[in-house]
Amino acid sequence: MGTVAAVQVPAAGKRTQTGDVIARWVAFAFAASILVVAILLVHQLWTSSAETRHKFGWGFLTSSQWNPVTEDFGALPFIYGTVVTSFLALLISTPLGLGAAIFLAELAPPRLSSALTFLIELLAAIPSVIYGVLAIFTLVPLMRTTVEPFLKDYFGYLPIFKGTVFGVDYLSASMVLSVMTIPFVISVSRESLLAVPREQREAALALGATRWESTWQVVVPYAKLGIFGSVFLSLARALGETMAVTMVIGNDPSIHASLLAPGYTIAAVIANEFSEATGKVYQSALVELGLVLFCLTIVINALARLMIVATTAKGSKRA
Amino acid sequence: MRTHMSKSSCALAAMLLAGASVAEAQNINGAGATFPAPIYQKWFGEYHTAHSGVAINYQSLGSGAGIAQLTAATVDFGASDMPMTDDQISKLPAKAFHFPTVLGAVVPTYNLPGATQPLKFSPDVLAGIFLGTITKWSDPKLAKDNAGVKFPNADIVVVHRSDGSGTTFVWTDYLSKVSPAWKSKVGANTSVSWPTGLGGKGNEGVAGLVKQTPNSIGYVELIYAANNKMEYGSVKNAAGAFVAASTESVSEAAAGAAKAMPADFRVSITNAPGKGAYPISSFTWLLVPVHIPDAKKAAALKGFIQWMLTDGQKECAGMYYAPLPKAVVALELKQLAMVQ
Question: The whole model's pTM is what?
Answer without folding.
Answer: 0.81
